[in-house]
Design goal:
- This protein is of the alpha/beta class.
- It folds into three domains: 258 residues, P-loop containing nucleotide triphosphate hydrolases (Rossmann fold, 3-Layer(aba) Sandwich); 100 residues, no CATH class; 245 residues, Nucleotidyltransferase, domain 5.
- 37% of the residues lie in helices and 18% in strands.
- Helix 16 packs across helix 17 and helix 17 runs antiparallel to helix 18.
- The radius of gyration is 32 Å and the shape is elongated.
- The termini are far apart.
- The C terminus is likely disordered.
Length: 670
C-alpha cells in the first residue's frame, strides 16, 4: 500500500476520495451543486437516507454515481450495493466502466491491492475467477454477468462486497442472492438510481407512473422486512409530469428531500437583448460556420464574442450560472454558454438543464392560468346570445358517474361565447371530484346497470340541451345546431343514445385521435365514397343503418381552442364566458370550470411536421369540461364556422372533371 493515511482519510469523505482516486474524471472545479450532490450521496451511503436530486444534462451526475458505488464497495460501507439505470443497456455499460476502473486505475491498485491485484491477475479473462485461490482458499471473485463480487480476502473491508448494476425493471427481480462465500441470503442495503427514465418513457404518462411505482414500492422493499434501503435518485427532468418531475414534488414525496439544480441559477434580467441583437448575431455566425465550413469555432463566433464582451454588463445583469467552469472553448463565460443553449432550444433548456418543465411550456407558446379564463367574461348573462352569432353547438364528455357539457354560441368567424356549462346530474356549487361526485347517475337511476344509467342520463341531457329556449339578445330564437358527445369510453351506449334520440339528425358521436408528427393529417387523407373531410375532422360514411360519426384530431383542436381562449376580448376569434364584471366583483364563479380548461399542457414534437403533443398537467387528471369545449368548437367547424376561411369539406370520389365538391352543409340542407 502506497499511501495508507490517504486511504484512511477518504473512508468517510467521498469528495476527497473522488479527487484523489478518480481525478482523471473530474478535471474541472466543482460547482456548489456538485458539492451538494456529493454530500447527499455521502449521507445516503453512511446514514441510510432516502434522497432525490435533479441535475442539468451533462453535469457529470452518472460519473459521480459510478465513483460513489466504487467508494462504498472499496470500504465495505455496504455488503450489497446496486446501481440502477433506465434500462439494461445502460446498466451493462456502467458495470463495464467499473470493471475497467479496477483493471486499470493505478491509484486504486496502489492503495487497494486487496481488490485490484486479484482482479488484474485475471488478465481480463473472467473465467479464471472461478478457480482463483488466496492462501489455499477461493476468493469467490465474480467478474462477469450483471454483478461484481469483490475478492474475499481476510481482513479486507471490501471482502466479498457485491456491486450490481441493473435496469430498473430487472433490479427488483435480481435483488436477492445467495452469497457464494457464506451461503447466506443477502439483500441490497444501498441503491443509487441514476437517470431511471428514457425519453420515450418520459413522454408516456403510463410508463412514468409504472416506473415511479417500481421505485417507490418495489425497489424500496428490496432490503427485506424491517430493513431500510438507502436510496439516492439522481435524475434529469425531460417533460412535465414524467418520473423525475413527479418524485421531485416536495408536497407529494417530502420523504425524498427532493432538490432541483439548474444550469443557470439566476436568469439575466435583460432578456430582450439576448433575444434580439445577440441571437441575430448568433444565428448569423452559425450560418456562416455551416456555409463556409469553418472548423475553428472561436473564429466562426468571433463577431458574437466581440458583441458579448462589449455588452457583457447589460447582458449578464443579475444573471448567474451554477457552474462557472462549464463552457465551451469559444464561450467567454458559463452564463453565455447557458444562454446559448436557451436560445437554441428553449424547451430542452427549461426541462433538461433547468429541471423546470412548466417554464418550457411558458417559453414555447401560450400557457393560460385559471384566472386568465375565469375573468374573461363577455358581459352577457347565462343563455344570452350576441346578435353576431349564427351557430349554437355543444360538447358532452361521458363519464361513468356524471356527464359534463358546454354550450357555445359562435359567429361565422369563430368568435365564441360560452353561454352554458354544467353537469348531469347537477352538482352542488363549488369544487367536486369527478371520481366521487355528490350526485351520480347511479343514484338517479338505481334500478339500472352502470351502462344503463349512463344511457338514461345521456338521453335526458340531450333532450334538455335541444329543448332549452335559446334566444339572441335581439329576440331571435335559436336552436342547438349540433352536439358532439364523446363516444370513447362507452361507444355503443353513446351511439344508441344518438340513434334513438328525437334529435338524432343533430347529434354526431365523436372520437378524438392523437395525430402525431409522423402521421398524415386528417385533412390530407384521401376521402372515401360518402366521407366528408374538414379542418382536421372527418365524417366517415355510415354503414347501413348506423348513425354518422365524427373523428377529430384532438391535438389540432386543442391548439385551436387554446388560441381562441388566448385571443383578447373584442378581437375576432375570441372565446369568452358568460357573466359580467362589476368593479372588482364578477357575477359568475367560473374558477372550477377554468381549472378544467387549464388542466393540460402541450410539448412541441418534430417529425414530418411540428405537432403540439397534449398531456395532463402533473396532478391534474380532471379535464372533462376542457374536452366538451373542444368538441363544441369542432361542431362549429362542421356547421361552417371558419377562423381563416378553411375550404370546408368535400365528399367522396369525384365522378368526373366537372363534378362539384359537395359540402356536408349542402347535404344537410338538401
Amino acid at each position: 500500500m502506497v499511501d495508507p493515511q490517504l486511504k484512511a482519510e477518504c473512508e468517510f469523505d467521498l469528495k476527497r476520495y473522488l479527487e484523489n482516486y478518480h481525478d482523471e474524471w473530474f478535471s474541472l472545479d466543482w460547482s456548489d451543486d456538485h458539492l451538494r450532490i456529493i454530500a447527499k450521496i455521502e449521507a445516503t451511503v453512511l446514514l441510510g437516507l432516502t434522497q432525490a436530486i435533479a441535475m442539468p444534462r451533462g453535469s457529470g451526475k452518472s460519473t459521480i454515481c459510478v465513483g460513489a458505488i466504487i467508494w462504498s464497495a472499496n470500504y465495505g460501507h455496504h455488503l450489497f450495493q446496486m446501481l440502477v439505470h433506465a434500462n439494461s443497456g445502460k446498466a451493462e455499460n456502467a458495470l463495464d466502466i467499473i470493471r475497467f476502473v479496477y483493471e486499470t486505475n493505478t491509484a486504486l491498485y496502489q492503495d487497494f491491492p486487496e481488490i485490484c491485484y486479484p482482479v488484474r491477475a485475471l488478465q481480463r479473462i473472467a473465467n479464471r475467477a472461478k478457480g482463483q485461490m488466496y492462501h489455499g482458499e477461493p476468493t469467490y471473485l465474480q467478474w462477469s454477468g450483471d454483478r461484481i463480487i469483490l475478492p474475499v480476502i481476510p481482513g479486507a473491508k471490501s471482502s466479498g462486497c457485491v456491486i450490481m448494476s441493473a435496469g430498473l425493471q430487472e433490479a427488483v427481480r435480481g435483488a436477492v442472492m445467495v452469497h457464494p462465500a457464506t451461503g447466506l441470503l443477502i439483500r441490497p442495503s444501498l441503491a443509487l438510481v441514476d437517470d431511471p427514465q428514457t425519453r420515450e418513457s418520459a413522454m408516456s404518462e403510463l410508463q412514468s407512473q409504472q416506473r415511479l411505482d417500481i421505485i417507490t414500492a418495489d425497489l424500496m422493499g428490496c432490503a427485506g422486512p424491517g430493513m431500510q434501503l438507502a436510496v439516492l435518485l439522481v435524475c434529469t427532468v425531460i417533460a412535465p409530469g414524467d418520473l423525475a418531475d413527479m418524485i421531485l414534488d416536495p408536497e407529494r414525496f417530502p420523504e425524498w428531500s427532493p432538490e432541483r439544480c439548474r444550469l443557470i441559477s439566476e436568469m439575466p434580467e435583460n432578456l430582450d437583448i439576448w433575444h434580439d441583437e445577440y441571437d441575430q448575431i448568433r444565428r448569423r455566425c452559425a450560418k456562416r460556420i455551416k456555409d463556409e465550413g469553418i472548423r475553428n469555432l472561436a473564429e466562426g463566433y468571433q463577431e458574437l464574442t466581440d458583441f458579448y464582451l462589449q455588452n457583457r454588463k447589460k447582458l449578464d445583469q443579475n444573471g448567474k450560472a451554477s457552474w462557472e467552469a462549464r463552457k465551451l472553448p469559444h464561450d467567454v463565460s458559463a452564463l453565455q454558454h447557458g444562454m446559448n443553449i436557451y436560445l437554441s432550444n428553449p424547451g430542452a433548456f427549461w426541462s433538461e438543464y433547468q429541471n423546470d418543465p412548466i417554464k418550457a411550456i411558458e417559453s414555447d407558446g401560450v400557457l393560460l392560468e385559471p384566472e386568465d379564463i375565469s375573468r374573461k367574461v363577455s358581459g352577457f348573462a347565462r343563455l344570452q346570445i350576441p346578435t353576431d352569432c349564427q351557430y349554437l353547438t355543444s360538447g358532452i364528455d361521458v363519464q361513468k358517474r356524471i356527464l359534463y357539457y358546454t354550450v357555445v354560441a359562435w359567429s361565422p368567424s369563430f368568435t365564441g361565447y360560452i353561454i352554458n356549462r354544467g353537469t348531469f346530474p347537477q352538482q352542488p356549487p363549488g369544487y367536486f371530484s369527478g371520481r366521487k361526485p355528490r350526485n351520480t347517475l347511479q343514484h338517479m337511476f338505481p334500478d339500472q346497470t352502470p351502462e344503463g344509467a349512463v344511457l338514461e342520463g345521456l338521453m335526458i341531457l340531450l333532450r334538455m340541451l335541444f329543448t332549452e329556449p335559446y334566444r339572441r339578445v335581439d329576440g331571435l330564437k335559436m336552436n342547438l345546431d349540433l352536439c358532439l358527445p364523446d363516444r370513447g369510453w362507452l361507444p355503443n351506449i353513446v351511439d344508441r343514445a344518438a340513434e334513438t334520440s328525437e334529435f338524432s339528425g343533430n347529434i354526431l358521436p365523436c372520437n378524438g385521435r392523437k395525430i402525431g408528427p409522423d402521421e398524415t393529417p386528417l385533412s390530407q387523407c384521401r376521402p372515401r365514397e360518402g366521407e366528408f373531410i374538414g379542418d382536421e375532422w372527418t365524417l366517415p360514411a355510415p354503414k347501413g343503418e348506423e348513425i354518422r360519426r365524427c373523428q377529430l384530431d384532438s391535438y389540432h383542436w386543442k391548439d385551436f381552442t387554446l388560441q381562441r381562449l388566448a385571443t383578447p376580448i373584442g378581437q375576432r376569434g375570441c372565446l369568452s364566458l358568460y357573466g359580467q364584471q362589476q368593479g372588482q366583483r364578477f357575477t359568475e364563479d367560473h374558477d372550477f370550470y377554468a381549472e378544467h380548461l387549464t388542466s393540460e399542457y402541450y410539448m412541441p414534437q418534430s417529425g414530418r411536421r411540428l405537432v403540439n403533443m397534449w398531456k395532463p398537467k402533473p396532478g391534474r387528471s380532471e379535464n372533462h369540461w376542457w374536452d366538451t369545449l373542444v368538441y363544441a368548437a369542432v361542431a362549429a367547424s362542421v356547421k361552417g364556422a371558419s377562423a381563416i376561411g378553411f375550404p370546408l369539406i368535400q365528399i367522396g370520389k369525384a365522378k368526373g372533371r366537372n363534378s362539384r365538391k359537395v359540402t356536408y352543409l349542402d347535404q344537410q340542407s338538401a
